[in-house]
């Protein structure tokens, strides 16, 4: 089915609007009914456009039919929501997502030689654009671990000198760049590390009409880390990107910011606390609803305090 049958929008529409409005659209990852509902509730409350991001591993976890059934049954305003494949590592998985009804796909060829990245990005863009589906590509490599699809010990900053030719050759609709963020909860050795805004400035000057994307930008709220540890967890030395740095990046041409780890922390913190305080309760609806509410609150905070995307529809 085509994504329009689900009332979805493509990210090209959302991100170009964000560039004109000097804000960014959040891409929130989800994995089940509760995490999907949390994101959509936050979008409805804040009147913010959002991108529903699904990784390859999350797609496998939910299965095609369940995922698209959830999307079909969800309630949201048209022209507000995009369904996006996050970090697709092959043309085949991107094609599969498009055929399912995704309105946006990311081909991540950042670990490939440049010529191979360009070749597969071109092929993916050609197929996507036949169906008015948006494509995101990536130059530069982020280190860190989030799941098996975003797992690398290497990192490389995006080279500003090659972004223009890359975008021209691939016809990509948006470009994910590497300026010092990383996947997972362990993004910083200390709280004082800064993103490479000098690189971002050069990239934005070289491709001013292309929306830029920031992956690995979770803030890792310490209140969740502490709460998880308080109720039986063991997360140590986890630091994220400060909201101030993300806001600065948005002011410098970043139109889409991905968040995954923050949402996992919010959800897990709520589950651990609820079960610890309600030792006789074994009804999944109770603790999952509690976790969904906490995740909704965090998404609202992110939209209002970082993205600037509230009341933009």
Could you characterize the architecture of this molecule?
This protein is an alpha/beta fold and 313 residues long. The chain has a single domain (3-307), classed as TIM Barrel (Alpha-Beta Barrel), CATH 3.20.20.70. Helix content is 46%, strand content 16%. It has helices spanning 11-21, 33-46, 56-62, 64-73, 91-100, 114-130, 163-170, 197-206, 222-230, 243-250, 261-277, 284-307; strands at residues 25-29, 50-55, 81-88, 104-107, 134-139, 144-147, 150-152, 174-177, 212-214, 254-259. The strands form 2 sheets. It has an 8-stranded parallel barrel with strand order 1-2-3-4-5-8-9-10, surrounded by 8 helices. Strands 6-7 form a two-stranded antiparallel ribbon. Strand 8 (174-177), helix 8 and strand 9 (212-214) form a beta-alpha-beta unit. Helix 2 (33-46) runs parallel beside helix 12. It is globular. The two termini are 25 Å apart. The mean pLDDT is 93.
Please tell me the CATH architecture by its name: Alpha-Beta Barrel
Tell how many strands the DSSP assignment holds.
10
Radius of gyration: 18 Å
The CATH homologous superfamily is termed: Aldolase class I
The largest sheet has its strands arranged as 1-2-3-4-5-8-9-10
Offer a quick outline of the entry.
By secondary structure, the protein is an alpha/beta fold. It is built from 12 helices and 10 strands.
What's the structural blueprint in terms of helices and strands?
Blueprint: H1 11-21, E1 25-29, H2 33-46, E2 50-55, H3 56-62, H4 64-73, E3 81-88, H5 91-100, E4 104-107, H6 114-130, E5 134-139, E6 144-147, E7 150-152, H7 163-170, E8 174-177, H8 197-206, E9 212-214, H9 222-230, H10 243-250, E10 254-259, H11 261-277, H12 284-307
Parallel strand pairs: 1-2, 1-10, 2-3, 3-4, 4-5, 5-8, 8-9, 9-10
Antiparallel strand pairs: 6-7
Helix pairs in contact: 2-12, 5-6, 9-11, 11-12
């Amino acid at each position: 089915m085509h994504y329009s049958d689900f009332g979805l929008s493509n990210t090209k529409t959302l991100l170009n609007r964000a560039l004109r409005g000097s804000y960014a659209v959040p891409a929130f990852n989800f994995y089940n009914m509760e995490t999907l509902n949390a994101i959509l509730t936050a979008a409805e409350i804040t009147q913010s456009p959002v991108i529903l991001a699904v990784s390859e591993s999350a797609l496998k976890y939910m299965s095609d039919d369940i995922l698209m059934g959830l999307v079909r049954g969800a309630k949201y305003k048209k022209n507000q929501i995009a369904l996006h494949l996050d970090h697709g590592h092959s043309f085949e998985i991107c094609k599969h997502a498009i055929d399912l009804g995704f309105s946006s796909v990311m081909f991540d060829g950042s670990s490939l030689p440049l010529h191979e990245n360009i070749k597969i990005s071109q092929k993916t863009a050609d197929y996507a654009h036949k169906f008015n589906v948006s494509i995101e590509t990536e130059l530069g490599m982020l280190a860190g671990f989030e799941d098996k699809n975003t797992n690398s010990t290497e990192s490389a900053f995006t080279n500003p000198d090659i972004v223009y030719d890359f975008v021209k050759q691939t016809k990509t609709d948006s470009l994910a760049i590497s300026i010092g963020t990383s996947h997972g909860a362990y993004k910083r050795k200390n709280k004082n590390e800064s993103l490479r805004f000098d690189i971002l400035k050069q990239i934005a000057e070289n491709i001013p009409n292309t929306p830029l994307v920031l992956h690995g930008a979770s803030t890792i709220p310490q209140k969740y880390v502490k709460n998880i540890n308080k109720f039986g967890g063991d997360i140590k030395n986890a630091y994220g990107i400060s909201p101030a740095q993300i806001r600065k990046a948005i002011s410098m041409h970043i139109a889409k910011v991905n968040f995954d780890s923050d949402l996992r922390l919010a959800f897990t913190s709520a589950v651990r606390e609820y079960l610890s305080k309600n030792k006789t309760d074994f009804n999944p609806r109770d603790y999952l609803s509690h976790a969904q509410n906490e995740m909704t609150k965090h998404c609202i905070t992110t939209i209002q305090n970082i993205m600037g995307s509230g009341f933009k529809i």
